[in-house]
Amino acid sequence: MKYTTVAEHFAGRFTEPIYDGSYHTQLADAVSGSFGVLSAYRINWCQVHGDFKNVVKRGMFEPYPHWSPLYDACRTILKGHVALGTQFLGEVTCARMMGEAMALLRAKHGHSVPRWWLPVMNALREAAEEKVR
Length: 133
Prior knowledge:
By secondary structure, this protein is mostly helical. The protein has one domain.
């Protein structure tokens, strides 16, 4: 039986050498797809950058200051799974990789993930558990 690997699922993702947190740029367009695949498309890219139609939300938005180390942590985790030949099992694998990137970001840089990270990761875990039931 053939199964999908993390390398196959994430082919062409997290390939940019660095991401500075920019928005509405060619780099941001490439990076948004990578974060989309990692989160199983559960993030709204414009909202994580404060692009709200509601002017109050827009005014209260505080940009995430650690995009570069977060992107680097995701790249490092992906490279590790590619090297190990990890099987891709859907949402559970995405949640696992998000958790590992979060742990690496904290250990290596002392930074926390963005506020939206944990709810997305937990939603992926819950979706994976639902499929098992």
